[in-house]
Amino acid sequence: MAAPTPLLAVRGSDGTSLLRGPPAWEQHPSFQRDPGPSRCVAFSRDGTLFSWCNGHSVSVVKCSDCSIVSTFDLPKTSLLEFSPLNSILVTWQAYSKTPSCPQGDPNLQLWNTQSGQLIKALFQKKVEAWCPSWSDDEDVCVRSVNNELHFYQNNDYSMVANKLHMQKVSDYILSPGGGPSKVAVFVPGSKGAPSFVRLYQYPVLGGPGAALANKSFFKADKVVMQWNQKASALLVTASTEVDRTGSSYYGEQTLHFLSVSGETALVQLLKPGPVYDVVWSPGSTEFCVVHGFMPAKAAVFNLKCDPLFDFGTGPRNAAFYSPQGHILVLAGFGNLRGQIEVWDVKKNKQVSKLQVPDTTHFCWCPDGEHVVTATCSPRLRVGNGYKIWHYSGRLRHTGEVGAELWQVRWQPFPPGSFPPRPVQQQAAPSEAPPTQAYRPPALRHLPAAASTMLHEEEPPQNLRLGEQKVPSKAALKNQKKREAKKAAKQQEAKPGMEPPPEPTPPSSSQSEPSSGDPEVDKKIKNLKKKLKAIEELKEQQADGKVLQKNQLEKMQKEEQLLKELQELQVTQ
Predict the structure, then answer these.
(1) Nearest-CA neighbor of 473 among 452, 457, 484, 495?
(2) Is 361 within 8 Å of 340 (Cβ atoms)?
(3) In angstroms, rounded to a whole number, what is the distance separating the alpha carbons of residues 167 and 521?
(4) CB 251 within 8 A of CB 242
(5) Cα–Cα distance between 530 and 559 in angstroms, integer?
(6) Largest Cα–Cα distance in the chain?
(7) Which residue among 89, 413, 479, 540 sits deepest, i.e. has the most Cβ atoms within 10 Å of its Cβ?
(8) Which sequence spans correspond to the domains of the chain?
C-alpha cells in the first residue's frame, strides 16, 4: 500500500490554498484556492477534515476530494478547532458588547460538524485557553470558568457533570489518550505561599489523598505544562517575568517533573541560564531541554531526570523531535541566525547542518522525512514565504508569496501512518553565505590569528552510565598543569643536564613605553587595568557564570574606556 501524501495548508493575505506534499509539490487538484484573506485554518486531528474562515463564512471540507461537509455563517471567526473524533467544530470570535446587548453575545460555539447544528454557546472572553479540552475518546471534556474547572461527559453540555473547586486555578492541561483521564492544575502562590501543580485522575477531584502527585515551588508567575504521549509523566516549566539578579533578560526559569505514580523532582540542568525549550520524545521515555546562557546547551534526560546525552553548546533556542522520534532538530530562531542541526537520536550523531535565516516557523512533516521553514507576518513583513527541506539539507520546494504569509500548517495523520525509515547520514552545505566571526573592539586592530573566540563551544558528550565522559575545560586545564609539572621533574632528574633558566618577567619600563608625562602614564596604566578586568568578566560570562549588576555595568563602559585610551596614546 502506497504511503499517503501529506497536505500543507498555506494561509495569507492573498487567500488560502492546499499544497500536496512529497513527492508532488503541487496544488491540490480538487481544492480551488480561496482568494479571500483567511482569518484561520484548522485540520482535524486525524487529518480527514479541513476548515477555514475567509471573513465571510466558515467551511469544512474532506481532505481526500475537498467535498463540502458543512458551512457556517460566521464571518468574524478568529479561531477554529475540531474535537478528537471530529464530532464537534469549535469556533471562537472576539468578545464584544453593543448598545442593544450590553452583556454581549456568547462568543464560543460548539457545532455538530456533520449537521451544522449549534450544540452549545458559551462565553469565553480571554483568548488564553479558549478551546475546551477532550479526552481522545471524547468521554470527558473540560474548560476553565472563573478559576475553576467544569467537566462534561459524553458531549452532553446541558449540565456540568463535575467541578474542580480550588483557589484560583490559573492553568490546566488534560492528559492525552483515552480513559482514565488525568488533569494537571496550576495554582500560583500568593502572600508568601508557594505555587503548586497537582495531578488528579477523573472523576476523583477532591478530598484527602485525591491528588496523584503534588509539586510546590517558588518563583513561578506562570507555567507551561506538557504531558508525554503515554500520560505517565508531566514536565512543568515555571518562569518569572523578571530576573531579580539582573543576569537574564528572559526572567528566571526552572523545570520540574511529576509522574502519575507520585514521584516529583527538580530537573538539574547542565548550565545556568534561561530554559528556552522543552520537548518530549514521542516514545515518552526521554525529553530534551535547550537551556543556559548563549551559546546554549541541549541535553536529553530520562524519566529519572538523569542526563543521557549532552549535545554541547551552540546558537540554539528550540528543539523538535520527528513524529517517529528517530530524529531531533536543534535550531536557533528569532534573534539568532537560523542555524538548524539535525541529529540521529539512536546513534547520537549529527546528520546535517543548514542555515535558514529569518525563519519564524518550523514544523516536521508527518512522514518524518521533510520539514517546512517559513518567514511569516507579522513577525517579519518582508521576504515572506516558505521552504520545504529534506532533513539531510536538500531543498525540495520553495513557495514564494507576493503578499503577506500568515501561516503554514501540515495535515496531521494517526500514529503509525508513516513508519520510520533508516536515517540518511548525508549532509548538504548550507545555502547561506559564510559570515565573518565577531571580534571584540579591543582585538580588531590585531591580525586574525591573534584574536580569540568570543565563546568557546563545548563538544557533545555521552552521559550514559558506564561510558567515559569528555573532561570539562577546568579538568583539561588542570591536566595540562600536571603534565607540565611532571615534565619539569623529569628534566631535572636527567644527569649531566642543567635545568633551563627561568624567564625573567619584563619590567614595567620594558613593557610600557613612557610618554614623558607621569600623569598620562598613570592614566594609561589604569585604563589598561580596567580593560583587562572587563575581558576577564567576559570570559567568566561566556563560561556561564552569573555576573552581578555592578559587573554588568562595568562591562558596558568598555567602548568609552577604549576611546579614552586611544586619545591618550595619540597624544604621546
Answers:
(1) 457
(2) no
(3) 67
(4) yes
(5) 12
(6) 108
(7) 89
(8) 155-266, 512-572
What 3 state SS string does 395-459 have? EEEEEECCCCEEEEEECCCCCCCCCCCCCCCCCCCCCCCCCCCCCCHHHCCCCHHHCCCCCCCCC
Distance of CA 567 to the CA centre of its chain: 46
Query: Would you tell me how many other CB atoms lie within 10 Å of the CB of residue 134?
Result: 24
Peptide bond into 505 cis (omega under 30): no
Strand segments, DSSP code E, in 83-190 are 88-92, 108-112, 118-122, 133-134, 140-145, 148-153, 162-164, 171-174, 182-187
C-alpha 183 chain-centroid distance: 23
Distance CA(17)–CA(494), nearest Å, equals: 82
Helix (H) or strand (E) holding 421: none
How many Å from the N-terminal Cα to the C-terminal Cα in the chain? 83
Amino acid letter, residue 173: I
436: cell is 565573518
* Number of neighbouring beta carbons within 10 Å of residue 441: 10
Tell me the three cell numbers of residue 249: 533578560
What cell was used for 337?
541566525
Q: How far is CA 339 from CA 203, 290, 315, 361, in A?
A: 46, 14, 7, 13
Whether the predicted model's global pTM rises above the 0.85 cut: no
Q: How far apart are CA 503 and CA 496, in angstroms?
A: 21
- DSSP state, residue 443: G
Pair 157, 119: CB distance under 8 Å:
yes
Residues near 464 by beta carbon (within 8 Å), at least 6 away in sequence: 308, 309
**Cα 60 versus chain centre, distance:** 31
| Counts of helices then strands in the chain (DSSP H, E) | 5, 37
CA distance 167 to 257: 22
**C-alpha span between 197 and 348 (Å, rounded):** 33
The residues near 172 (Cβ < 8 Å, ≥ 6 apart) are 129, 133, 142, 144, 149, 183, 184, 185, 186
> Which pLDDT tens digits describe the chain residue by residue (572 residues)?
567 889 999 999 888 999 998 888 889 989 988 888 888 999 999 999 999 998 889 999 999 999 999 999 999 999 999 999 999 999 999 888 878 777 888 889 999 999 999 999 999 888 888 999 999 999 999 998 887 899 999 999 989 999 988 778 889 999 998 778 999 999 988 877 888 999 999 988 877 788 999 999 888 889 999 999 999 999 999 988 776 666 566 678 999 999 999 999 999 999 988 999 999 999 999 999 999 998 999 999 999 999 999 999 999 999 999 999 999 999 999 888 899 999 999 999 999 999 999 899 999 999 999 999 999 988 888 889 999 999 999 999 998 777 889 999 999 999 888 998 888 876 544 444 445 555 666 656 555 544 444 455 677 777 775 444 444 556 555 655 666 666 666 556 555 444 444 444 444 434 455 666 777 788 888 888 898 888 888 887 777 677 787 888 888 888 888 888 887 776 65
